[in-house]
Amino acid sequence: MKARVNGQERELADGATVAAVLDLLGAPAAGVAVALDGEVVPRAAWASTPVPEGAAVEVLTAVQGG
Amino acid sequence: MDDPLVIAGREFGSRLVMGTGGAANLAVLEKALVASGTELTTVAMRRLDSSGGGVLDLLRRLGIDVLPNTAGCRGAAEAVLTARLAREALETNWVKLEVVADEQTLLPDPIELVEAAERLVDDGFVVLPYTNDDPVLARRLEDVGCAAVMPLGSPIGTGLGIRNPHNIELIVARAGVPVILDAGIGTASDAALAMELGCSAVLLATAVTRAQDPARMAAAMRAGVEAGRLARLAGRIPQRFWAHASSPAPDV
Q: Measured between CA atoms, how close is B72 to chain A, in angstroms?
């Protein structure tokens, strides 16, 4: 199935979770947050939250700014 | 701690809040942050693959508290989501709230700003809003529960200093929360003036990170903030039109 991850279309395994997407991106264990279709997915729910077909996943971290 | 800055019950020994944007690299940023003496510093939230990472490790190593911002957000909904993501990623409920109206001026959109501030306060955030130098708007932001108000001296990154000092004084005169001069600082005298006008702190980034010698300018800003604070507390003489001799009149 397909989903948009940080603006880029990605092929994911059926039933892939938010945690699986983070693995795919090589995300660090700390300092990141995830929004699924515009809603924050709390860290504790990453492993149990499936990414629906066509969903928009945003994975954010802190960068220099302000 | 002598004369600490207190925001939402948290004490800071330094009245200089730094931003991390604009530095050529992390090594330059590190020297500047150390020279500034700052204890609270902003970061932006961006996609994981963006450049400019590594800043969190640096701040942690230097023992500087992180203040996430919502830079780049154009509406209340976007700013609220960004603040919630920052809270999740950085484990802080503090946020520098920025909701800008357009890219050319980067001026705050007052209507979206108040809306976002209200929603974030309701959601348990400690909200520090970047605002126009408008005493009425500052009051509205305080009324919805913001922990500080951060009026601009002039638009972000312009280095034009404080264009309407009287408005800053009006904001200070009526504020029940700390007033932090945010944006527009160009050089150390601007930072000193902000403090002389009664601001509780100064937030700046570009003036240091894009200076020819960022660490030296950071030291200058630190000194400027301290000098301005001392002058404010000392109570300046009134300005007068005619000369007033400081020596006694001659006897002959």
A: 10
pLDDT tens digits along B95-112: 999 999 999 999 999 999
The tokens of B9 are what? 């019950």
Token pair in block for residue B198: 């009664």
C-alpha A60/C-alpha B4 separation (Å) is 33
Q: Which residue has the tokens 């880029």?
A: A8
Residue B175 is encoded by which pair of tokens?
């504020």
Residues 6+ apart with CB under 8 A from B36: B14, B16, B18, B208, B218, B219, B221, B222
pLDDT tens digits for range B33-47: 999 999 999 999 999
Residue at token pair 């209200």: B118
Residue B96 designated active-site? yes
Fill in the DSSP letter of residue B104.
Answer: T
Is residue B1 predicted with pLDDT exceeding 70? Answer: no
Q: How confident is the model at residue B52 (pLDDT cuts 50, 70, 90)?
A: low
Q: Percent of chain B at pLDDT above 70? A: 98
- The shortest C-alpha distance from B40 to chain A (Å) reads 12
| Both structure tokens of B75 | 């509406």
Question: Quick one: how many helices (H) and strands (E) in chain B?
Answer: 9, 10
Distance CA B164, CA B118 (A): 27
Q: Do A31 and B90 touch (CB under 8 A)?
A: yes
Q: Which residue carries 């945690």 as its tokens?
A: A19
Q: How far apart are CA B190 and CA B179, in angstroms?
A: 15
